Amino acid sequence: MLNEVFLPLLLVCLTLVLGPYLLAVIDRAIAAGIERRAVANPWLAPLQHGAWLFLQSRNHTERPDSLNWQLAPAAYLALAAAGLAVVPWSATLIPTDISTGLVLWGAVEALATVVIFLHGWSANALLPLIGAYRYVALGLSYILISMFVLIGVALPAESLRASAVVESQRELWNVIRQPLGLPLFVIVGLGVSFWGPLNLADSADLAGGTEAEISGPSRLVWQWARRAMLVAFSTMAATAFLGGWLGPWLPGPVWLVLKTLAVMALLLWLGRSLARVWPERLVTLAWLLFLPLSFVDLLWAGVEALR
Asked: Where are the alpha helices (DSSP H) in the chain?
């Protein structure tokens, strides 16, 4: 009984710690490959950067909402942990095997919008507030796209339980059964973690956006949480579309890790390769292209389920 509780919790904690670290290492390697340059100390550089941030002094603005300003990075990290908690590692190794796992994942995305806005608003400064409102302008579209896509993978499983979604892919992965689903979910992952071309909340033209006024441990936790959220999305994408822990020869958790690393590499490569999208154009694309495509994906899944 102790192992059934302790081991899944340990896996979630290890993912929160090692996942962002591996993501940083892979990101540096991809950046070096794209720029055709040698990368120095790819395994040590993330640790050095983290130590440098941790030792910095905290920044202060005039009359901020100090409680929300300090809690927002930790809350964003906690949401990444909540998302990871519904991901099954094997048929028996499931941190939280609730019947509404996909609904919980949707709640994580919705609450992320609140946390990101609070992070920018609570600083009581112009650039963080603009970054927060930029994200809110797109947050609803991300939630709706993800909702349609995840309902699509729930239809063949006839369940909102993440473990049932994996079991429904024993004969055919959802990435083949519903080819629009994974690309749309990847877009949502880049958007909710505001990474690469979809980084509007913390973009360079806002001098860092919501994180423009933070430094020291708070900045470290915020960057750690962003990476953890991208890891959580990669893990859910591997679960919902790539068969999760299913695979021959190797143990289930190993298959999940390998598939997660593959999705992470794809997300990071896209983040480094694609040009940044301007806010106005991205709003248009989200509502007039991506959202209708997600509805088409849902209809596609419904027709397949009725056959």
From this structure: 2-35, 45-55, 66-85, 101-121, 126-157, 162-167, 174-177, 181-192, 217-241, 252-273, 279-285, 291-306
